[in-house]
Design a protein that fits this description.
About 25% of the residues lie in helices and about 20% in strands. The chain is α+β, with helices and mostly antiparallel strands. Helix 1 packs across helix 3 and helix 1 packs across helix 4. About 30% of the residues are buried.
């Protein structure tokens, strides 16, 4: 009879079976790149994005296989619960895109930033949401008036007509001494200086058959031959010449000097009203 040692007897050599064995991963390392490829395809990155995401390690056949497996293979680490609603569970494409975002974004950062800079330079703020291209808007420039009031601060003290047995050939506008006087329209200064009873006076030819005359100035700032525009400062209000107080004596002459016409009607026809003389309303 053969004697055998008990199974648990000391000294018996037993073959030890390891509890855990080290096995190679079921999926090769390149499978990770397949998920990046699938994420790039789902996100619509394009061929350039796929090449950048995989660093050129995934062949064309791997791209096709990853695309076909995207709808069937679940993402690593994602489990679905039978009791969970279908709408709440993330789709495979969404999960793969999210898991591969970290790998795709660094590779695509240069391209994305360059494209974003190009778009930002051609699209106005807020226009990208509406899908409208940026169009530079020209600022509207308000046209300058052709005719202006000679001294809007002045109050009318005397109108055109007979006064003290003689023709008062203009309209008087009273204001404190030194109030600015303006050219009523563009033209050329043909006279600037003392003019008998008008004191310091300026005469402007507007080139349209009419001249304007400004009298009793305290200061003249315009010079003979100077071209002026409507609103240009030509002097200051005063009381020089035959005057009983500081005011501007303003006249309009038709054709040539010494042919005065009613000034407020003429100014009204040119869009400027000098109030308190109602002759233009007749």
């Amino acid at each position: 009879m053969q004697h055998r040692a008990p199974r648990n007897a000391p000294g018996r050599h037993r073959r030890t079976i390891p509890l855990h064995s080290h096995r190679a991963p079921r999926e090769p390392i390149t499978e990770k790149s397949r998920y990046a490829v699938a994420a790039a395809l789902v996100a619509g990155v394009g061929v350039t994005g796929v090449a950048a995401a995989t660093d050129g390690t995934a062949p064309a056949s791997a791209v096709a296989r990853a695309n076909s497996q995207a709808s069937a293979a679940p993402s690593p680490g994602v489990t679905s619960s039978p009791s969970a609603p279908t709408s709440a569970a993330p789709t495979t494409a969404t999960t793969v895109a999210a898991s591969a975002a970290g790998a795709v974004r660094p590779a695509m950062s240069g391209v994305t930033e360059a494209a974003a800079a190009a778009v930002a330079s051609s699209v106005a703020p807020g226009a990208e949401a509406a899908g409208q291209p940026f169009v530079a808007q020209r600022r509207k420039v308000k046209p300058l008036p052709q005719w202006v009031h000679p001294m809007p601060e002045g109050a009318v003290t005397s109108c055109f007509g007979q006064r003290w047995g003689r023709l008062h050939a203009g309209v008087d506008l009273a204001a404190p001494t030194g109030t600015p006087i303006r050219a009523v329209g563009k033209g050329v200064v043909v006279s600037a200086g003392p003019a008998e009873g008008y004191g310091n006076a300026v005469l402007i030819d507007h080139g349209n058959g009419y001249l304007t005359h400004y009298g009793h100035m305290s200061v003249i700032t315009a010079t003979v031959g100077q071209r002026v525009e409507a609103g240009d400062h030509i002097g200051a209000e005063g009381s020089t010449g035959h005057s009983t107080g500081p005011h501007l004596h303003f006249e309009v002459h038709a054709g040539s000097y010494q042919n005065p016409i009613e000034p407020t009607r003429w100014m009204h026809e040119h869009g400027v009203d000098i109030t308190s003389c109602a002759s233009f309303e007749d």
